[in-house]
Amino acid sequence: MEFLSVLLPIFGIFALGFIGQKKFHFDTKGISTMALYLMSPVLVFRTFYTTEFTFEAVYMIVYTFGLCMALILVVYLVSFLKKYSIPETCGMILASSFMNNGNYGTPVAFLLFGAVGLDYAIVLMVIQQLLMCTVGVYYAAKGSPEGNGVRSAINAVKRMPIVYGAMVGFVFQYIDIPLSAPVLSAVDLVADATIPTIMLTLGMQLANISIKQIEKSRISISLILKLAISPVIAYIITLFLPVDDLLKQIMIIMAAMPTAANTTMYALQFNTEPDFVSSATFISTTLSLATLPIIFLIVL
């Protein structure tokens, strides 16, 4: 029941966006642009400003980047064998390589491991945010029909305000720059609204998708990578990391989380397989109701 209490609000927000889009036909691209360029930088700034890092964070960075790169390599191998186009490959990477360890994974870690688990999960969430707003944006831009390859993808990352929000937040924390109460209140208001806005956008995008047009073979491969192969790769990585068993368990469980909702926002913004990425996000979140309990039984 506690597990369901984590999931019900998530699906409730998806449903609200879905119903709203069916009735009012919102401009999802405009809303995703607002969330990406105005709201997300504030959320990332707050995260990097308020999160304290220890030496263990180095191993968490190695784990997060190692897992992501391993999944990307697997996607490239599958894409080569299946002869996917560049946009199809980039859409697969967005759907398969980034996990929802924020609004989904963090509460689950808290339910399973208490306050200590929550502390670890928050640091992993921060690192994942940085990874998504660099590597994730790179592949979203690279797969865009309007893009012209690697150079435009790198330029897209440079223009992304989320990166600078992270840098400013880290600097402010490192040199201990205090923020006044009114400024903190404004930051909190925008930051707290960011994730629900992204999730509403995903629900809206799902309302625009025709299930008949979804490429079932590619979706199936993406789901296997995200929900089954990802935790196996995470387990292998943890064998080489000198961290305690609790953190290893959390790392494996985080790797089994469904596709991050942020990837839908990037896919919409750069028009990189938005229907495919949205579908993968929603279906992986739904299937996680069955797959995560299995992971719990194996890991715990």
Describe this structure in words.
The chain has helices at 2-24, 28-50, 56-82, 86-96, 105-142, 150-158, 161-174, 181-207, 216-238, 245-255, 262-270, 274-299. By secondary structure, it is mainly α. It has a single domain (2-299), classed as Na+/H+ antiporter like fold, CATH 1.20.1530.20. Helix 2 (28-50) runs antiparallel to helix 8 (181-207). The mean pLDDT is 87.
Characteristics:
300 residues; mainly alpha; Na+/H+ antiporter like fold; 80% helix
Please give the structural blueprint.
Blueprint: H1 2-24, H2 28-50, H3 56-82, H4 86-96, H5 105-142, H6 150-158, H7 161-174, H8 181-207, H9 216-238, H10 245-255, H11 262-270, H12 274-299
The N- and C-terminal alpha carbons lie at a distance of 18 Å
CATH architecture assignment:
Up-down Bundle
Q: From the alpha-carbon coordinates, what is the Rg to the nearest angstrom?
A: 18 Å
Shape: globular
Largest sheet: none
Helix tally equals 12
The helix-and-strand class reads mainly alpha
Tell me how many strands there are.
0
Proportion in helices: over 70%
**Unreliable segments (pLDDT under 50, ≥5 consecutive)?**
none
Number of domains: 1
Order of helices and strands: HHHHHHHHHHHH
What portion of residues belong to β-strands? under 5%
* CATH class annotation: Mainly Alpha
**What is the typical, i.e. mean, pLDDT?**
87
Q: Give me the CATH fold name.
A: Na+/H+ antiporter like fold
